[in-house]
Amino acid sequence: MLGPTFWRVRWILHAATASGEADVVARALRDSLAHCTWLELRTLVVPALGTGTGGLPLARCAEAFREVLAAHTAALPLVVRIALSSASDHAAFVRAFARAG
Prior knowledge:
This protein is mainly alpha-helical.
């Protein structure tokens, strides 16, 4: 596990999504993006919210992320990185984002 010293983070935003519901994940991601704008943060790194304890299927999480990020119009953050733990997780997000057109 890589700690805050490795990442050189300025802020850690906690988004609780233990329910595993896609609308909760979407709201948490929207709120995190809004906080980045408010704090003038240029980069956000976020895990696949809701897929751990919440049990949200990774494909549904990826769809929620795609929908929220497509609708995000604020100038900040400039970069959103999605932290995933495996190649298959990455592939699920690539498939979801590819469906966006």
